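Lab notebook, bench 4. Still working through the backlog of constructs that have no structural model yet. Next entry is a single chain of 428 residues. Request: give me the structure tokens for it.
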Amino acid sequence: MEPNTLPSSRYRLVSRFQIFVWTLFDFANTSFSVIVVAVGYSLYFKDVVAGGSGRGDFLWGIAVSISMFITALISPVLGAAADFSSRRKRFLFGFTLASILCTALLFFVQEGMIVTGMFLFIIANIGFEGGLVFYDAFLPTLTTERSYGRVSGYGFAMGYLGSLTTLIIAMPLYAGGFTAENLPNVRTSFLIAAVIFLSFSSPLFFFFRDHKVTFERKPSYLVAGIQRVRETIGHLKNYKNVARFLLAFFIYNDGILTVISFASIFAQQSLNFTLKEIIFLFATVQGSGIVGSIVFGVVTDKIGPKKTININLILWLIIVTSSFFVQSKEAFFIIAIFAGSSLGASQSASRSLMALLTPKEREAEFFGFYDGLCGKASAVIGTFVFGLISYATGSQRMAIISVALFFIVGFILLQRVDDTRSAHALQN
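Model written out:
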């Protein structure tokens, strides 16, 4: 029996179950983003692997930039290949497995192993970020345009719940800081992140199925992907609203990813946060992120994703400006609460707007541009600039205020996007 002939109650049950399984992947992969990117490994790499030298910010910025640059190069091609071959789940599995394995191997990275530490992180981050291309492309198949914001918000809320859960589990391991006696405990947190990533991502691979496609002659997916990307670039003028949004997203997402990559390092160096306080700080961020994702997910469906993004870009501008002037830990905790709620909201609304503007027949390919060329390539610039300014001036406050420019320009460019019509109508 075809899905559209199922009784409505059974169809709703199947859809809700698929949405739940889809959101579990968000729960899983945020264990990597919070422990490796945001809190644990970023600080461990700077203070222990790089020896706590002044070049730590710069080296970490380079590692993040390289991983994002490579992801930006391959994501559109892989996204197009996934559309052509209808093998999104298989691509997602490969990237996810690479990220999990390299995350686990971070346990063996010790003092002075800069090249190894950067290499494993780069591969793990490519796996994490590259997999999002295929994960996000499932969204339009799960629900209707009317509920994109809500379902996307559920995913981000589940992600923040996963981050919070991971932090609670890992918190005792960081109680001793980066002392020689406690370093094995810190490295154990990387294994925990890998196990959580593996455990909660598995249901998607068991319960989601790829559509089978039969060919008279098996095509080269890579060649097909390259051809489709070239075709998309050549005809991007026919999707003006998509192009306008991608440009705006490229700019303001640069600021968001830069804040994520350096928030814990800024708290430690500029405000003298202890490791335990940083863990608690990010637990607070995840908690506010859950609320922000759910609340703004509903708001997005009420007022539209573009207006929701506008509101949050103004909030981001206030957040980074306040961070430049902040002097106390208590004030930074308040800033972190707003940052957490705005983080989930802006990312969820952006994913919803992209789904709204994207033609159905090119979902994975266009999400490749969204997650890859625009999402990941933007982080190449922001993280590099932050690390460079911090290293050159010796002031992270000067580096953080530079991020405000990305939110201002992104806000201006977003006003050119028309979100009042359907994806097909928006081609012109």
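Notes after review: Residues 1-13, 422-428 have pLDDT under 50 and may be disordered. Residues 240-271 form the longest helix (32 residues). Flag for follow-up if needed.
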